[in-house]
Amino acid sequence: MRIHPRKTVSYLLLSVGGILFLATINWKTEQLDAFDVQNGSPSDAPWWREGSSRIGESRSPPINIWHSGTDRYSDRILAQMAHVPTDYTPSSPMKYIFVPGGIWDTPMGQSKFVEQRCRVDRCALTIHQPTRADAVLVQNSKDAAWMKKQPGQIWILWLLESPMNSIGLTWLQDNINWTASYRADSTIVTPYEKFVPHANVSRLPGQAMGNFADGKTKLVAWFVSNCNAGNRRLEYARELRRYVSVDIYGSCGDHRCARGSHGKRCDTLLRKDYKFYLSFENSNCEYYITEKLFWNALFNDVVPIVMGGRKSDYLAAAPPHSFIHVEDFRSASQLADYLLKLDQDDRLYNQYFRWKSTGSFINTKFWCRMCAMLHDDNKPVIWFRDVERWWRRNATCTRDRWDRAADIVPSWKMSVIQ
Ligand SMILES: *[C@@H]1O[C@H](CO)[C@@H](O)[C@H](O)[C@H]1NC(C)=O
Ligand SMILES: *[C@@H]1O[C@H](CO)[C@@H](O)[C@H](O)[C@H]1NC(C)=O
Ligand SMILES: *[C@@H]1O[C@H](CO)[C@@H](O)[C@H](O)[C@H]1NC(C)=O
């Protein structure tokens, strides 16, 4: 099932960016299930794979599910997904998660946990009785500003947007226990997509399967509606357009595409005609990589040209050799030269598709992980004394390039939406 990208759709968070690839071809497989190694039948698959009927799970997670430790990119997602707390049983008392203001399109009650087939599903979302709730889920709004934290309550801060596009957090004082965001240093990491390499693949194949340049007559496309992003992405695209053809669709450009149902027609147009797509985020902040990389580009077989997180963030989240970072080049004109070179050489262009069939994008089961962690009786005590300072720390975003010190934004200069 593919749903068209829309930032506010909380579904986005549930399927979600891989972390397992390091600069060279170096698969990290120790967190993966034996299913991948043995290539077993679907019914033997871990519970979160499609078609699985397996029930028992390891109750001792192989890695610490709470802290990322020293590895900047350890997201602990697979371990959290496998986690079933020791004392948990299917008749354990329900954990109630109060959601101030509700969640657009997400039903209250237990259904989300059942629908995701959670191993630990005794949780319910509610907009009633905040004082009796076990947890409070704070989103990008001040809907919880009137609330008083009850003893024993776990407050979870859930953020989808970058620090440049989220509200000020000082009003939360020291109330937040866990964070949930795309950042790998969150308690519950919620990347937009997560790529998990198959354990039976130890290196990239020498060649892509098929010719992905076939029939493509156009070079670069970009679908964009916000023309005033703080990272000057539109200026960069216009500069690039001086050297190569860049078709800008939407309100910031002169190309139009009738979306059709779920944007299908635009996807088809991209897939058939274009070689490259500008996966430019609306702000350049560390780890900030959204559906623009995955859904717009990678899933449509166009090579993403990325701007947003640091290069190392993309190396960790994207499939191996699947993207071009703007900071691989000193200028837009040098990037243009490289694109022209790839345009002329199908063999080189197809290098960007060798990763296909070497792994899969998994549903990271945000709700399941949250529920399992809430049921854990051995939770470590965690809270943020100043979550605003954590979220908008020094140098977490840059106004333009990461490799130019003058662009780096100090925490106290970060603009905050009130
Ligand atoms: C590797 O395993 C995946 C399933 O995990 C399977 O789809 C794929 O065909 C296997 N590849 C090889 C080369 O055995
Ligand atoms: C949650 O945060 C509060 C401070 O707001 C703290 O006193 C409490 O121990 C924390 N609980 C857990 C389980 O981390
Ligand atoms: C903020 O980060 C920049 C870049 O990493 C660094 O040069 C600067 O010293 C830092 N400032 C503070 C106050 O930590």
How far is the first residue's CA from the last residue's CA? 36 Å
Round the mean pLDDT to the nearest integer and report it.
Answer: 85
Q: How much strand?
A: 5-15%
Give the biggest beta sheet.
Answer: 6 strands, parallel
Radius of gyration: 22 Å
Overall morphology: globular
Low-confidence stretches: 1-42, 53-61
- Given the structure, what is the number of helices? 11
Structural class: alpha/beta
Bound ions, cofactors and other small molecules, one mention each: 2-acetamido-2-deoxy-beta-D-glucopyranose
**Order of SSEs:** HHEHEEEEEEEHEHEEHEHEHHEHHEE
Number of strands: 16
Query: Strand order within the widest sheet?
Result: 2-1-3-4-5-6
Helix content: 10-25%
List the helices and strands and how they pair.
Elements: H1 34-38, H2 77-82, E1 95-98, H3 111-115, E2 123-126, E3 135-138, E4 154-158, E5 178-181, E6 188-189, E7 194-197, E8 218-223, H4 233-240, E9 246-249, H5 264-273, E10 274-280, E11 284-285, H6 291-297, E12 303-307, H7 311-317, E13 324-325, H8 332-344, H9 346-350, E14 359-362, H10 366-375, H11 387-391, E15 397-398, E16 408-409
Parallel strand pairs: 1-2, 1-3, 3-4, 4-5, 5-6, 8-9, 8-10, 10-12, 12-13
Antiparallel strand pairs: 7-14, 11-15, 15-16
The structure holds 2-acetamido-2-deoxy-beta-D-glucopyranose (3 copies).
Domain Fucosyltransferase N-terminal: 103-192
Transmembrane segments: 9-27
GO molecular function, one term: fucosyltransferase activity
